[in-house]
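W.,

You were right to be curious about this one. When I first looked at the sequence I had no strong expectations either way, so I just let the prediction run and decided to look at it fresh. Below is the sequence, 161 residues in total, followed by the output.
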Amino acid sequence: MKSDAEPGTGVSMTEILFYHLTESKLEDALPPLLEKSLERGWKVAVQTTAEERRDALDVHLWTFRDDSFMPHGTDASENAAQQPVLLTASGENANAANVRFIVDGAAPPAIDTYERIVFMFDGYDAEQLEAARAQWKKLKGEGHALTYWQQSPEGRWQKKA
């Protein structure tokens, strides 16, 4: 795991990113980010708000592209702890993930046990937008370093803050 805090600050060194979806849906934007996380050797948790949504993402990750295999499972499976990508509707870290994606406006668990937290939110969903703003304000107020990315008209990620 990582160190608990930056020396002398008491502030977590967890990298926190906000990904603002404006040109594509989560189902299109999430798989490439998961693939990059796996390429870096990270274990990943993807937290959503409901079991039905978790299960829909599970089906999607098996079929999102013909030429790709995304090794993953859900927290409802017996082998959840062994999954490189674990889809969950809870705040548990059943697969000891290094990276946690928070999607659909889910409430994040304690962030200090992760190397990276990624909030992905739909810019056209008022509830998700408000939840992301509230998280940004809360985490900024706690002294965390935050990065904000927004999609360009071509769907590429551009760092905005």
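Here's what jumped out at me. The helical segments are 26-39, 51-63, 126-141. And, maybe more interesting for your project: Strands lie at 15-21, 44-47, 73-74, 85-88, 99-103, 116-122, 146-151, 157-159.

Coffee later to discuss?

I.
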